[in-house]
Amino acid sequence: MKLNIVIIGSGIGGLAAAIRLAVRGHDVTVFEKADTPGGMIKQLEWEGYRWDMGPSSFILSEQIEDLYLLAGKEMKISIRNFQLDPVSRNFFHNGLVMDAFSDMDAFIKEANNKTGESPKSIKRYLNKLSRRYKITRGVLVQNTFSTIESIFIPRIFRAFVISRYRDLFHTVNGMNRRSFRSDYMVQFFDRQASGFGGNPYKAPGTLNLYSHLMHNLGVYYPEKGMYALADELWRLADHLGVNFRFSSKIQRINLKNGIVKGVSTEKEFIKSDIVVSDIDIRYLYKELLRDYHNPQKYFNDEPATSVMVFYWAVDREYSELSFQNILFSGKQREEYDSLYKKEDVCTDPTIKLHISSKQVIYDAPEGCENWVVSVSVPGNKGQDWGVTGDSLRKTIIKKINKVLDTNIEIHIKKEFRLDPGTIEEKFGSFQGSIYGSSYNHKLSVYRNHPNFHKQIHGLYFVGRSVFPGGGIPMCLTSAMNVDQYISKHYSLGN
After folding, report:
1. Residue in 295, 390, 306 with CA at minimum distance from that of residue 340
2. Which among 7, 196, 343, 370 is least buried, having the fewest CB atoms inside 10 angstroms?
3. Which fold has domain 302-427?
4. In this predicted model, what pLDDT tens digit does every residue of 338-373 receive, in sequence order?
């Protein structure tokens, strides 16, 4: 059966869904309100500098390769990737510097030398995460718990019995506190899990599985930058016959008796059998399904934090920095309290500093570097981000100058900014959240909106604001889930 399918949005989830559904022979049209594909994956250029806007790296690189294999195409050289080593260089508040190497033995040796943590404890921790990931992967990312039959299946019971429920009843920080004696190691692994925009003092210990993905499986970067990832997936989809309509904003999803009939722009109605949404779930219900009863439980969930980003054209090189750098806060508890309670900016935030020109030499002029400096901030609730940004900039510069013993401000030739208000306006992300809902609940992942609508026939969902959550691997998984659901619901076979 050949279906007429409309996809709203061309983020990484929408592009992957378009490729999968086109391979099956369906007529697929993607509507994108921007003039380029990629959703939050964008790039910024200025006088020989290029910056990634959005993710700075990705994990589970085989998911990209799978899309090309599915399409019967060789993966383009422009999105071939390399593994980061070290994964990150970590600067702690008292001057300690630790490289997180991609090789487990090298990382264990480095961590032991720098923090005093026993090699046995670190290896036991990473091996435990590896075992739990193998057991629970299908449950965590491919099962939405949206139907009775999806709950009562043997693999779920096996996963929870073998893992002994522990990760559900310990927080990220609690699990790490039980695993390590060194405060450095606790803070380091807390950060890996809280990268999803959650609070390690509240988020479930299952999020520590992300550390397994980073340190046991590796972190990757495309040879021509993150935007090449979206650009080449768009080209692959286009080659497969997907029709893209850029600068086209969908105004409404049209229903009749609980069945999808198509979508409407400002000027026309487009008939379709299926609609796949790759936009923020809150926006979809409020704007595109205005006449339909909104599932309030998804509106009540706490959104993940947002981010303030500074893009700096730096006119010198810093040999003491790596590709990805983390400058840790000396006040971690206060930092997370400010994000989730006070709704203001911490006086000592953790700073993420990404410099792709360390590996990709054409991302900055010779002898220069392209800095992407970011800190987590509360979501957009009407703050004056100009004033907040100016204050935060001073804090960041003061900290960088202290850590690197420099005067970075005199080396910044050009600056661009991205704040939560702009993220919300430009990308339609509720309060500027970059990961949808927060993970500050024991069953957070299963509280996400499922990948299909149980009452509206023909409506499906991909992207960061639905199951299994934010991040490139999760968005790609959501596209795979939708492909499988459509095949099942329309009896299309495998």
Report:
1. 306
2. 343
3. Guanine Nucleotide Dissociation Inhibitor; domain 2 (3.30.519)
4. 887 655 677 899 999 999 999 999 999 999 999 999
